[in-house]
Amino acid sequence: MKHLFAFALSVCILASCDESTSSLGVFSETDRLSHSTEIFEVHTRSLAMDSVLAESNISYLGDITDPETGSRIQASFAAQFHTFEDYSLPNKNRLFPLDSTIAIQPDHSVDSVKCDSAEIRLYFDSYYGEGGNPMKLEVFELDKQKVLEEDSTYFSNLNLEQYIPSGAQPLATKMFSPEDYTISDAERESSKHVDNIRIKLPNKFGTSMLQTYYKHPEYFKDSYAFIRNVFPGVYIRVKSGNGTMVGVIVSTLNLYFTYYDEVEADSVYNGIARFAATPEVIQSTQIKNGDVQTLLDNKQCTYLKTPAGIYTEMELPISEIYRSHKADSVNKAKLILTRYNKEQNDYAFGTPKTLLLVRKQNMYSFFENHEVSDDLTSYTADFNSTYNTYTYENMCRLISYCQHEKLYGMAKDGLTEAQWEAQNPDWNKVVLIPVNTSTNSSGYQVSVTHDLGLNSIQLVGGESHPLQMQVIYSRFE
To answer: So what's the pLDDT on residue 420?
Structure first.
């Protein structure tokens, strides 16, 4: 513990190169601060990422052919539904089918409670492919005996079909296209309209759920009880069709029913019980990627490809930066990543909005621990469409951190530099990963998650074209 504290303290002191030095003391007139600049090569390569953490506010559904590789990318997802604490519905004596002529009775049987209709709605704000392309999906109810646990970690290569009861038949099927031509153009183009896929469920499914509420209201007291006793969620996959991928932002389960006024029996109301897939419960996307080996074999550039396809690894020249500057401080280390221009067409994949730069050894724990970039061991940069670049303005704290981690490890274990680096091959490696970020009202990051959308870009780099990092040193003389 003492060793860990000593290393952490030394890093905090030595890695503060980009902060104000006004608190470090008053210098005499004889003190002079000199600066120098050097350029170092940064070597990059493309690596396959077979899976990523499948936690996201967006779920993906579709089957498309990758225009770069000609292979298929398939996405399906599982979703649980959230219920508010102490969920309540009208008194059961007031619920009747829409076409019922039964008069209100003082103590009506639970078995007479009926659902007029039930549905799942998948709301999406973006899609890839032709608007009228026909696709067929299937909806399966998940297994109550094998629940997706809230405290477990699920990755995008997980076989979600194992959470369907053996031999289960689809709860519903649906033919759909991204543009819903069953509604009018005016409605579809209205500012109030949100594109969605409506999946009609059997009425008996909704009736069973309503009756369960009146028999066991305690099952609806919170999401934990609801998922384990009433409805464990759904798995939705594409059964047939190719050429469409939708990004589902909200999934809702809606049960419609009719109820009567408690006093005036002739006053009829339409009611809805709505349950939503939200961040409070699990939404997990399963992704099946095609062969990307042809892209990995290209040594003239590197790739960034999502969902869960390819990331770029960079080896930082940390030893070289310090080799002839042992008495200097690294004040600034700037790195610019340039995207190659790509052919623009209706079917080109997108460009990632934000890239996370994180130490390779932390690339999984960063997401599993729900971290945000700290400008020490992780950074984010947004795409600049004017200059076609992502820019990391100052990585000096990361460089200093890695260098002093090495020096501390060598001293603690009595190793030479070569021995320590051999035991820690990733000590100076970072990776670039496309992400989605969220900020609060003050502009601070509150979440960083994998970007599972369809993106693909080439970056200047690869074995044939090392990048250049500008490093500025300072020294007191």
So the answer is: 97
Query: How, if at all, do strands 135-141 and 268-277 pair?
Result: unpaired
Low-confidence ranges of the chain (pLDDT < 50): 1-2, 4-6, 8-9, 11-16, 18-27, 102-104
Which DSSP string corresponds to 347-406?
Answer: T--B--SEEEEEEGGGTTHHHHTT----SSSEEEEE-BTTTTEEEE---HHHHHHHHHHH
With beta carbons less than 8 A apart as the criterion, state whether 63 and 71 touch: no
286 near 76, Cβ under 8 Å?
yes
Look at residues 54, 245, 254, 237 and name the one whose alpha carbon lies nearest to residue 142. Answer: 237
Domain ranges (residues) in the chain = 28-50+292-476, 59-288
- Interhelix angle 2-14/396-413, nearest 10 degrees: 150
Maximal C-alpha separation, the chain: 99
Backbone angles phi, psi at 249, to 5 degrees: -95, -30
For 70-123, how does the pLDDT look when each residue is reduced to its tens digit (9 = 90+)?
Answer: 888 999 999 999 988 878 888 777 776 555 554 445 556 777 788 999 999 999
Q: What is the token pair recorded at 185?
A: 């153009």
**pLDDT tens, residue by residue, 162-177:** 999 999 999 999 999 9
0.70 exceeded by the pTM? yes
